[in-house]
Design goal:
21% of the residues lie in helices and 24% in strands. The protein has 131 residues and is of the alpha+beta class. The protein has a domain of 73 residues. It is rod-shaped and about 95 Å long.
């Protein structure tokens, strides 16, 4: 009876060696791993505030991120903003929205604005944009 437990122990040990040997990493790369949940690419993930960039271009317009408002300011155009695929502008006391900064503007309600622009539109006085 002592030979059966020994054989079983040898079989289990050999299987364990094969399992451990198969756990070796096969991914060989010249670049270090970006870590769990991250991808190698051009910048941080999309959910990162301002996508990790303080400046970018959309539709040929240069944008600068305004952290206080949580939106991009369109450089060279007063009271023009960009947020998640849409351009917003303030004309007088009315907000407008467009897919392009150069036209196609339509009126939009204050409740449809990004939170940082909603806060700006409260009250009667509007601050002038820095751009």
């Amino acid at each position: 009876m002592t030979s059966k437990p020994r054989i079983w122990l040898v079989v289990v040990s050999v299987c364990a060696v094969f399992v451990l040997a198969s756990c070796e990493t096969l991914d060989v790369s010249c670049y270090p791993s970006p870590g769990p949940g991250r991808k190698i690419g051009h910048g941080p993930p999309a959910h990162a505030k301002a996508h990790g960039y303080r400046r970018k271009q959309v539709g040929g317009y240069e944008l600068t991120f305004d952290a206080g408002r949580g939106v991009y300011v369109v450089v060279g155009l007063t009271n023009h903003y960009y947020h998640e695929g849409y351009f917003y502008r303030l004309r007088g006391d009315a907000w407008e929205i467009s897919l392009r900064a150069d036209g196609g503007w339509a009126p939009t309600a204050r409740k449809s604005l990004p939170p940082g622009l909603q806060a700006r539109s409260k009250g009667k006085g509007h601050k002038k944009s820095a751009s």
